[in-house]
Amino acid sequence: MNKYGKIEELIDLVDISNDIVIFTGAGVSAESGIPTYRGKGGYWNKYDPNKYANIDYFYKDPSYYWSFFKEVRSPVLQSARPNIAHKSIADLENTEKIRSLITQNIDGLHQVAGSKNIIELHGNTRIFECLKCKKKFTLDNVNTLLESKLPPECSECGSLIRPGVIFFGEVLDSEVLSMAEKNTLEADLFIAVGSSLVVQPAASLPLIAKNNGAKFAIINIDPTPLDSMADCVINISASEVLSKIAQEIIKSG
Question: Which of 27, 137, 187, 195 satisfies CB 3.0 to 4.6 Å to 128 for a cystine?
């Protein structure tokens, strides 16, 4: 079967499913101009991830993270817009076939696209919190603070601000992970999109779904370690595949 025939196969699976979980990784946001961490030209090549993404180093020298944020991450976040894949997922949500959207991404583009039932495994880099008084800050708030001081200080108490992401050295929020696992167990179709499916514990979710009787599909440009377990594997861009699926399902609905 050619790759376009596989899209038709996945459309048929979506059509007969009512509790779909969509699981997204960095490949989805790459089409919005956000570099993947492991890809050529990724964030890793500009700053050392063992420093900027490590919780111990963040507390040791928070200025390193905030320099990375100010120079690299914030400009990308401010310019990035949801692509067709993000929008197609939001459109599929409106058909009420989607039980939940589980994402490894921290860029917040699913929310901007209009998705609502989102489980963010690794947090969100558009939200921030003071470590002492717990005051919340938006991306705009933090960018304003960075204009006068680096690292930025809480406008309420003057303490250190941290991003709402999971650093290396931190464990995933147990409630968030439990919610992801619960939705996965209730899925009749699990679609992994733009993920290498190697980062744990997130990469275990497709196995949970498959072992519980759900169909399992992968949409990813490159092969993954779980391809042999999937019912359908499509090595085409997420935007091309998801837009075709959304169009057909909305038309038939």
Answer: 137
Mean pLDDT of 174-192: 97
* Of 248, 249, 250, 218, residue with least CA distance to 236: 218
CATH top-level class for 35-79+123-165? alpha beta
At 36, is the pLDDT very low, low, confident or very high (cuts 50, 70, 90)? low
Rounded to the nearest 5°, which phi and psi values hold at 67?
-70, -45
H-run or E-run covering 102: strand 98-103
Which ranges of 80-222 does DSSP label H, i.e. alpha helix?
A: 84-93, 109-113, 139-146, 174-185, 205-211
| The domain made up of 1-33+81-122+173-253 is a member of CATH 3.40.50.1220 | yes
Query: Across-strand partners of 164?
Result: 124
Q: Cα–Cα distance between 22 and 250 in angstroms, integer?
A: 17
CA 4 to CA 9: how far, in whole Å?
9
pTM over 0.90? The answer is yes
Residue 142 bridge partners (DSSP)? none
pLDDT band at 39 (very low <50, low <70, confident <90, very high): very low
For the annotated catalytic residues, the residue numbers are 122
Domains of the chain by residue range = 1-33+81-122+173-253, 35-79+123-165
